Amino acid sequence: MWGGLTTPKELRAIADVVDKFKVPEMKVTGGQRIDLFGIKKEDLPAVWSDLNAAGMVSGHAYGKSLRTVKTCVGKTWCRFGTQDSTGVGVELERLSWGSWMPHKFKMAVSGCPRNCAEATIKDYGVVCVDSGYELHVGGNGGITVRVTDLLCKVETEEEVYEYSKAFMQLYREEAHYLERTAPWIERVGLSHIKQYVEEDAENRKALAARFDESQKYAQIDPWAERASEGVAKHEFTSLKQIG
């Protein structure tokens, strides 16, 4: 569900899976996704197969990776919206899904400073304004709440994407394993991030290019492999009971 968007086809496919496999609970999450709970382990490949057939990619709810990109409706449906926040969020998620990180990584795009998508407590948050986009980094809404630092302001969607890729790549290359962006930025300083991502255009483009190159090999749905190709089939076979 890219950027929290969905369609009748996707919702029908999810409902069919819930009925077919007798899923006991489904929940809309804070990240604007739908979780299915209580699926039997041996049913997982078939569940993934049905959802893949409807055009959906399984999420990375527990990975050290991009989790979700949360969006508001933006100027399309809200009188306060200044930019197409939903479209920007969808594109951010499509270019970054599957990317592995030192820790979980969350993004959001709010269509105006009212900040309905809570972009200022995300690892990378975009707040749309009349003149373009504010780029925020290093937020955390967890145990230790941290409001983002303002990285910079840009004018175009293309800059939003380039800066996001550069920031993610710098984080992946420099942060410690299991270090969220908030403590990483507090450790190295915002000026360090600005130096490599905002002030040095050549380095920013190089970071973004390395991110793009890595995504050529990372955007593989591991659940689809198990659903259609029988990868690791033994993981979903029940142990034989003896005696």
What does this structure look like?
The protein is of the alpha/beta class and 243 residues long. The chain has two domains: 57 residues, no CATH class; 151 residues, 2-Layer Sandwich (Sulfite Reductase Hemoprotein, domain 1). It has eight helices and seven strands, in the order αββαβαββββααααα. The strands form two sheets. Strands 3-4-5-6-7 form a five-stranded mixed β-sheet. The chain has a two-stranded antiparallel sheet with strand order 1-2. The longest helix has 18 residues. The termini are far apart. The model has no long low-confidence stretch (mean pLDDT 94). Its EC number is 1.7.1.4. This is Nitrite reductase [NAD(P)H] large subunit. GO terms for molecular function: 4 iron, 4 sulfur cluster binding; heme binding; metal ion binding; nitrite reductase [NAD(P)H] activity. It comes from hydrothermal vent metagenome.
Q: What fraction, in percent, of the residue positions are helical?
A: 25-40%
Shape: globular
* Share in β-strands: 15-25%
- Strand line-up of the largest beta sheet: 3-4-5-6-7
Count of discrete alpha- or pi-helical segments spanning 4 or more residues: 8
Identify the CATH homologous superfamily of the largest domain: Sulfite Reductase Hemoprotein, domain 1
